[in-house]
Amino acid sequence: MTTLRNVHIIDVDSAAIGDAVDIDFADTITTISPAEDPSAESNGFVLPGLIDTHVHLKSREPLVGALRSGLTTLVDLGTHPDSLVDDFRSDRGIPGIVSAGSAASAPGSSQIEVMGFPVGSGVTGPDDADRFLDWREAGGADLIKIIIEDPDATEVPALDIPTLRTLVDGARGRGLLTVAHAVTPGAFDRGLEAGVDVLTHVPFGARLSEATISRIVETGTIVSPTLVMMRAIADARLGEHADSAFALALSNVRALHAAGVRIIAGTDANETPFAPVPHGASLHDELGYLIDAGMAAAEAIRSATSGAADALGLSDRGRIVEGGRADLLVLGTDPLADLEDLRTPAEVWVGGVQVSS
């Protein structure tokens, strides 16, 4: 049993800072009680560990760095083979892993032909959806990732709407959430028509229409914009037009936020040579971009803690409560006053284990 004494918990839902408390925990938090000596000097502010809602896994060392940056949960949305994911799941020296493994895509997709995902991740039609979902469930998937391409914007093979709907309905029947890769307004609309739970990425080539944004609000669909990745892709592909494209991506997120869409923080962190996004530090960059798009600091923090946990059904984390996972960040200053302080927490605990510096 470990105790953090005379600390102040930041309630990420209300942005309130509580009175001094002592927190007892092992792998989970056992008790939170008033500090035995509240008059003593405070030992800092405690915040739930951060959640990156969109990453890809490859090697261990970047994940160790992510943990030191305060990330205690990583949501993998595209890693194979399943054995590699299993190895990372069992590693207590990195963040906790929630994983979809291989994403569903159309046969002949870029994911299969260029990125090397298994041929079996290609779904030939509605009648093939159960086969894919059985495979993902047997592989231990916590959620289902679906690649939604826009036939009007690309010649890349795309899953049709009946197949998308069958995948979403089948996943829901198995108690699994669906997260859809979508990078154009048309792909957003196809995802909404299919009924996906989360749309990840945000368009930077065109504005989202008011009708699309209204439908996102009406359906309660969640958006993980991955602005850091959109910046990286713009820089890699668009040359002198990169700044204007990224400004459009920010504008789309600003419109989503103003309309009341639930937005969660994700980065698409990866180690590819084309548009690498570093694990850990990039989530802090993402929070800064979300603030640029209109979020208050408290809202940005919520998007990577309780908001992310609620969106993905991770009921055991995202808040500091008795019975929750002991994923804890200890900071010397209040991050609500300066979000930059969140980049270098004084202490990081994941599942009750302290991270060495």
Describe the structure.
The protein has 357 residues and is an alpha/beta fold. 33% of the residues lie in helices and 20% in strands. It has twelve helices and 14 strands. It has a seven-stranded mixed beta sheet, with no helix packed on it. Strands 8-9-10-11 form a four-stranded parallel beta sheet, covered by helices on one side. Helix 5 (161-173) links the parallel strand 8 (144-147) and strand 9 (178-181). Helix 6 (185-194) packs parallel to helix 7 and helix 10 crosses helix 11. The longest helix has 18 residues, at 242-259. The chain is globular and about 65 Å long. The two termini are 21 Å apart. The model has no long low-confidence stretch (mean pLDDT 95).
